[in-house]
Amino acid sequence: MAGIRLWTWNFVCCVLVKTVSSQTIVNQYDWESEVSSKKGRSTYSLKNRPNIIIILADDMGWGDMGANWAETTDTPNLDALAKGGLRLSDLHSGASVCAPSRAALLTGRLGLRTGVVRNFGAAALGGLPRNETTFAEMLRAAGYRTAMLGKWHLGLQPGHHPLDKGFDKYLGVPYSIDMGCTDSPAANLPPCPTCPLDESATSHRNASRVEGGCFEDLALPLIKDRDIIHQPTNLSTLAEQYARFGEDFILTTSEGRPFLLYAALAHVHVPLATGARFAEASRRGPLGAALRELDWLTGRLAKAADAARRDTLLWFLSDNGPWEAKCTLAGSAGPYLGSWQRSAAGGGGGSASKRTVWEGGHRTPSFVRWPSHVPGGRVSGALASALDVLPTLAALTGAALPAARSLDGRDISALLLHPDPPAAPLRQVLFHPNSGAAGEQGQIGAVRVGDLKVVYFSGGAATCGGAQGPPRALRPPLVFDVGADPAEARPLGGQVAAAAREKAARALDALQRSVRADNTSRADYRSHRPARPCCSSYSAVCRCLWD
Questions:
Q1: Which residues form the Sulfatase N-terminal domain (predicted)?
Q2: Strand, coil or helix: what is 223?
Q3: Active site residue 153
Q4: pLDDT of 72-104, one tens digit each?
């Protein structure tokens, strides 16, 4: 089947680069010696470097994996894989909404540095800035062959496309699967209509919508490399197409070169659609069915890696927590309820998950499986982040870290490889940026200092039914002990809270100084309607004539 090449627009991207020395800058805000090494410490040759599979779920809560939360029974493959490796119970995404979280994962850098602090639309001219380096670019330079499947959400124009950011091959819906219409809509709130067949009725519309609403004037595209191969795509067959693409890539031999596969799955972001075999597979309805399909797809990729008979590291995590506004279609944050936010006497109600700095927004399910290297059957409560993926992969493969920039991630390879936990914590501080609820997007909304968490903003995110607490800055900031109080129900007071606020203030000051001295970028958030992925200019909804 022939595909249609994506339209490209040669607008100059707004990239701001501060001039610094060419030497790599690593963690200059490291007031507690949180320093990543410039070079990987591995002695692997190219021939025996590990294969790497990074699997990123979408809107999957900490409690949506049975290994974390016994109430969940829809993830047997994930649970078995987690049991065979190291489960990370205190790992956090780099932001609590789609594009900023993905940029943080890929680069090891917060949005304060990359400029990616909110989502890009379908007509975006920009994306992940050109001068930001992804782990795919890092590993390809080290000899890896690379591929990506699934949700990119970091731009499609030249310089921002997956093939321009380190990937040799790509198959996926390039942004969230609710950002376009389909012919067989899946479960969503509010329910979304099918792509119009009477296209004259949609010619006056544009892609604007209310948050969580429906796009009706742009069919959802499926892109292979730079070509649109379906528009609208069939969501019920998407997982099978991803599985075949992933298996083919994994099982392809290439003169002993290791591979990187980044699988950014659509599950469990709305609309929830699955293949027929999963439609009645769970008691939890469409959400449970989506978890079952996610679990099956992960299992297929893991089995293909085992069949390849080569050392493969598999790292599983999610981009953020559940989207509570979607009611029964949203997942579970487990015990991370954000109870203070939900109470009338506290935050005044609303969500404490996706888009917020509460634990349910950014603490995600995660594990690392690497047979014969990562001892299995372990659970680590060490503070970790998706930001740590890039520097850890550099250490395990011997790849050179990106030059002339600071990283916010840490090399946690010692935590993965050794059965005994390190004598000292690998990190004591973690920053949680505002992600669209309260406060300026990208600015730091909460700081973890050990088990204590200092929260600067509350409110602004809707729960089921639309209720939300008022967005506000907290003066003074609240302090919670998330080890003893995972629900964030009881703010601390006295000297403990005062000491935590002081440590967080010192960390924030050091971070700000580091950002000012760093190579930073500014993302281009301009949009232009003709820049949308469109396989037919004769169709008001960009419908492919062959579909």
A1: 50-399
A2: strand
A3: yes
A4: 999 999 999 999 999 999 999 999 999 999 999
